[in-house]
Amino acid sequence: MPKVAVIGVGQSAFVRGYPGSIRELAFEAYAEAMADAGAQNSDIGATVICSSPEYDKQRSPAGVIAEYCGLNPQPTFYVETLCSSSSTGLKLAYSLVASGLHDSVMVLGFQKMSEISSAESQERMGRGADIQFESPFGTMMPAYYAMHAKAYLDHFGASEEDLARIRVKAATYGQINAKAVYRKGVELEQCLTADPVSKPLKVFDCCANADGSSCVIVASEERAKAMGIKKPVWILGIGAASMPINMSCRDKFHGLEVAEQAAKQAYAMAGLGPKDINVAEVHDCFTIAEMMAYENLGFAEPGQGPELIRAKETYKEGSIPVNVDGGLLSKGHPIGATGGSQVRTIVLQLRDQAGDMQVKDPQFGLVHNIGGVGLYGNVTIFGR
Q: What EC designation does it have (predicted)?
């Protein structure tokens, strides 16, 4: 398989109410990634635009964004897999480059969730479930993940305090991430006494909607050399899976099988295992999602995830640093931009450019990005 490199990354600040249009929002990440790669528009062979369309007032936003960024007449594609849209877009970009169809591709993810009200947003999130058999009954994301939390706590004997520790960690690093929505620390007791959202999940167990954009530029090895890229980060393994949308068709609730399947594929392709990973970004839309990810990715045995966070092994100085940019819990979760933001963090880590969030000398990094309630799963492994 030909080698494919990440040559440029960018991200807007994630905010609660972006004042401009989606094209202006997308341009912020585009401009940063182009400057990072030292690229011109003529260097980009194709674009992959990623978002969740139920939040977009603009139909076919890919066309509008490609035009605004000056990326015509190159082909543009539109990808949607709910919250994992831009990591799915990365898989498409990798395939386009590895196949030789293009020698460089840009993946641009965005979401302006503030264009609709919170109530409308929750209703649209509910439509990520089956609209015939589940969402008409009022199911929403906090309730779905609360089912997973209840199952996990009951099955393994973990506690709500273990989940709260994950949020304390997220807030620790959110404070030093200039791109994050929430930059305040929280105490364990604050998390445990916060108002319930959907038991056992409380306010601090849940991420928040945000507006934001992310951009990742990939290129062939030859193209990266021709552009003089000094610190390419290589895509070593990509795994992707899906599960039945109806929760009644799932075999278990104390983990996400979609993540397990995607991780197996990514590790096999990269020729690596969980112990080789030096830093990871996981999809922590809720604290329970990060807890399950520890185990689904093989960082801990089933039921041993709480031991990792209790011992602070997932902090920056630990054996497997996870979400040391604050994760979704502190950064916010602009759905179409989330996966690309995770990739950006890992790329900066592998280049030793992560500033105060930098992990010591990482060689391999991993991104775990989930769409819906374990409906889609993407795991991508990167190396220096």
A: 2.3.1.176
Q: What is the DSSP letter of 336?
A: G
**Residue 238: C-alpha distances to residues 69, 263, 350, 379 (Å):** 28, 8, 17, 6
DSSP state of 194: S
Alpha-carbon gap, residue 27 to 197, rounded angstroms: 35
Phi, psi of 110 (to 5 degrees): -155, 165
Looking at the DSSP bridge assignments, the partners of residue 122 are none
The pLDDT assigned to 131 comes to 77
154 phi and psi, to 5 degrees?
Answer: -70, -40
The answer on 223 and 107 residing in a single domain is yes
Which of these is catalytic: 50, 69, 83, 206? Answer: 83
Mark whether 279 and 374 lie in a shared domain. Answer: yes
Among the candidates 234, 249, 282, a domain finishes at 234
Cα–Cα distance for residue pair 37/218, rounded to 1 Å: 10
Q: What is the pLDDT of residue 235?
A: 98
pLDDT at res. 185: 95
Q: How far is CA 27 from the centre of its chain?
A: 20
267 shares its domain with 332: yes
In a domain, 136, yes or no: no
What average pLDDT does the segment 113-139 reach?
78
Q: Is the pLDDT of residue 121 over 80?
A: no
What digits encode the pLDDT tens for the residues 308-341?
999 999 999 999 999 999 999 999 999 999 999 9
**Which of 102, 254, 283, 333 is flagged as catalytic?**
333
251 and 230 part of one domain: no
- Catalytic residue status for 333: yes
Annotated active-site residue 368? The verdict is no
Q: Is 123 exposed, middle or buried (0-12, 13-18, 19+ CB in 10 A)?
A: middle
